[in-house]
Amino acid sequence: MKLRLIIVLVIVLAVAGYAAYLCVHYFFYNEYRKYLPEYTFEEGNEFKELKDDSPNVEGMILAAENDYLKLYTNTTTTEIAIYDKRSGAITYSNPVNRSDDPIASGNNMVDLNSQFVLTYYDISMTEIKMYNYDYSVEKGQYEIERLKDGIRYTYLLGNMENPTGLIPLYITEERLQEKILSKLTDKEARSIRTSYVKSKDIDGFLELASGVKGSKVGLQKMNKLIEKAGYTQADYDEDAAAASGGEIPERTTFTIPLEYRLVEDRLEVTIPTSGIKETGSGRLSNISLLCYFGAGGSDEEGYIMVPNGSGSLINFNNGKKTERYNQYVYGMDETTQSFTKVEDTEKARLPVYGIKHADSAVFAEITSGEAMADIVANVSGNTNSYNNVYADFLIRGSEEVYMFGASGVSADLPTLEKDIYQMDLTVSFAFLNGEEADYSGMANYYRNQLIERGELTQKEEEEALPFYLDIVGGIQRQESFLGTPYTSVYAMTTFDEAGMIVDALSDKQIQNIRMNYLGWFNNGYYHDVASNIKVDRELGGKRDLKKLYSKMNDAGYRLYGDVAFQRVSYAAEGTFKYNYKMENAQYYAGYPIGLGMTNPVYLRQNGTGYMESMYNVLSPKFLVRYVDKFLGKIDKVALSGVSLRDMGDMLASDKKRSNIINRENTKYVVLGQLERLDQQIDNLMMNGGNSYSFKYAEDLINVPASHNPFYIVDEEIPFYQMVIHGSIDYTTGAINLSDSYDKQDILLRMLEFGTAPHFTLSYEESSDMKYTGMNYMYTTQYTTWLEDAAELYQSANKVLKHVVNSAITDHSILGNGVRKVTYDNGVTIYINYNGEDKDIEGVTIPSMGYVLEGVAE
């Protein structure tokens, strides 16, 4: 008996200990919270028009002014205008001549009159749009306050009137007689009384007849009689409350604050979601902000700049009205996309857009809330006559839930998250004029802003173009022993062999090598979680890694070790280091879909078809812990720096219902970890290069190599590269793994984009990876590419070594297939993609060639 008690006690203690471990290690672990920002809501004051000695905008009053700009507003329509003191240019929130638009009508005209558009779900989960103009401004349901350096409009959107006016839907016989019939003539009273029937739903009440509800004329006549009887809104509410058991059903309304501030030469426009209020059954999901700010008309020449991959231009009035541009900033949230593999596209890695007119331009940067935004652009001719671009913000998440009924009926129904995300939705608008009023001016302005904020810095002097070298090290491959399959680490390139490849490249006069070693620890490329660092012995272990580091360091090269933090390989599930049920990001709708399971975002695939290439998505809640553990180990490893595979490339939310972490919050958690990594590690290389990673990157790899050729876009531009050149060394994808290979075309694009060459190489034959998760690396054997790599590097370095430390100040499209790139040190490169020579600006550019000017002999 005593032994049984001891056994039971031990079991109870073990269970209690395990429960305590789960609580402390998972449920109560909230280190990520210290990286989240705090948002403030400025107290407003009474609005008074400012004295304006020289009015500049007709029909508006002065609301704020600084050394650069004047903010005007029309308090009747709530539209605003910015007057630029430097040029006299005026930018309006809404098109001035919109009432004359021959295309827009109905809701499309309301859209042109609005400063923002809400998308919400009603009680039946139907998606509905609501414009602030007809649901607030026209009804006079708004207030204006003065802020420091600006103003705030607070809008109440919703129909405060009853569907039937003052006519009660339900009323008792006694109340009808007392409040209405007794106050009217016999004829009037009879017409009212015959409009009511005995209610089938509520005992003791009369109900307005269905035929009367559907008659607009009948309702108008009844409302006049009821008003004559003195029946009021208070009476209506009292009868509605009595019919519903004491509660008046709330009307669906939304209170939205919209703030405008002048900050130096910019206008900052903000919707603080902490000030949003909802009543009734409606639930907000999206807000589209200032959709027509600076819009271009159908009679104007100009273009829209969008951050589509490297960058794109959409010409005004290009006739492509059947499609609009719409792209998520930083790509799609991996937690919310379906298991279906989406089309591979270049991401929008910059939270910016712009619009150019003849002599002026507006450049916009989403400075807060950008991780929840997508950028939308339209050309004239579809719903109205204007070319416009704007940001649309997700402020409450939703997911499709598959519902299957007993009768066999099924449907996908949206499930909404409970609360609105707490954040500021802020877009900063800058106003460019003269020679700066184009996409080059926008890039220059943005770069200078990033430098002022410390997110970019002038690069140290370099004498040669970098050469980016991915080395395929350890891979996971299935082997067999006595007929039993098992997975082992196979060395595609050992550390000694990587040194041999470096020697071979150096012998070919390739300089400034930046090696990114893929698959160097914890079982190869698809490595285990980075909570521990075990250098793979199949590659030579720590000793040979140190020898490789010494070789690279002595030559002035850099050796980076590739690490993934947020995409956790399937291999980690077989260990006790990672608990996917607890640590994975989860779907909000996971519980009903999973029939009681948590249904984590689980085992996404990169398309190779092999288990090792599948991965879990780590919840941002636990990212801090893994970075902690990694930083505790990395100092003991001989590396020049760390290459972060996913922290500059993806932001994933966690929809776990008890602790939702939205994507904007994830951004701040990632930024906090990048700061810590940067403080302890000498050099950081970022894969992908989302803009928030610029501050911490010495090198960027796999940055956008082009734009996506969407139907609506007209020109590809290297806007991304124009922003960072001269501050961060960068390269696009590996040349030897590209879909097409034309050496001369690749060289010309490198010269236009200011890009360093990038190759992915291995010592062993790439056929050794055929039946592995690395089979997409189909041609990597280094001797195959040695000559081409040397030729491309020498050709590119011959030109770009003159500008490796310089900023691109101008990029011009001089005609079909001819480009001109100008640097701040006076160097100019002309590029001709045509099959014939071109004479432009007094320069003869050879076919499929270039001309370099501004270099001292």
Number of H- or I-type helical stretches: 18
Report the end-to-end length measured between terminal Cα atoms.
99 Å
Spans of at least 5 consecutive residues with low confidence: 591-603
Give the beta-strand count: 46
Mean pLDDT: 90
Q: Estimate the helix proportion, in percent.
A: 10-25%
Shape: globular
Structural class label: alpha+beta
Strand residues, percent:
25-35%
What would you report as the Rg, rounded to the nearest angstrom? 32 Å
User: Can you summarize the main beta sheet?
Assistant: 12 strands, antiparallel
Structure in words:
- By secondary structure, the chain is an alpha+beta fold.
- Among the domains are: 28-158 and 253-293, no CATH class; 170-243, no CATH class; 808-857, Immunoglobulin-like, CATH 2.60.40.
- It is built from 18 helices and 46 strands.
- The strands form ten sheets. Strands 1, 8, 9, 13, 14, 15, 18, 19, 21, 22, 27 and 38 form a twelve-stranded antiparallel sheet that branches.
- A hairpin with a 5-residue loop joins strand 18 and strand 19.
- The longest helix is centred in the first third of the chain and has 26 residues, at 2-27.
- The radius of gyration is 32 Å and the shape is globular.
